[in-house]
Amino acid sequence: DPNKYFQRMAVGEIDINAKKRRSIKSMIQKGNYSQKSTDEMLKDPSHSPLYGEWNDLCPIYFMVGATEMLVDDTLKAAKKAYDSGVKIKVDIEPFMHHTWPLFLRTLPEAQYAVVRASDFIMEHLSIS
Predict the structure, then answer these.
(1) Is 99 within 8 Å of 67 (Cβ atoms)?
(2) CA-to-CA distance for 81 and 62, rounded, in angstroms?
(3) pTM of this prediction?
(4) What does each of the 128 residues of the chain score in pLDDT, given as a tens digit?
């Protein structure tokens, strides 16, 4: 039953990444994988866009829920883009989860988010 499988996965009874972790661990032991520390890997531009180049990017519209775990990364990315001369807009929606703009039929905040995103795109494409 797929529902029971996903329920077990959600509560941590099933680890869908266990095989992948074993594979990466064996690659490291064999010397076929980067010996960088986690901190070094997280600061590598190929692993995290926060440490990449932000110059000459198109305007960026950041939307984040105030209670989600990515709010700090969103603000860091927005600051990095702004400091690089990129036009940005940041909206922080109180009490919203990570994917709230996808729930157009159930959340009024999602409808407003999509309208704001559309306005942002039209503004920067010079569409009236």
Answers:
(1) no
(2) 11
(3) 0.66
(4) 555 655 555 555 555 555 555 555 565 566 555 566 667 777 777 777 888 888 989 999 999 999 888 899 999 999 999 999 999 999 999 988 888 899 999 999 999 999 999 999 999 987 75
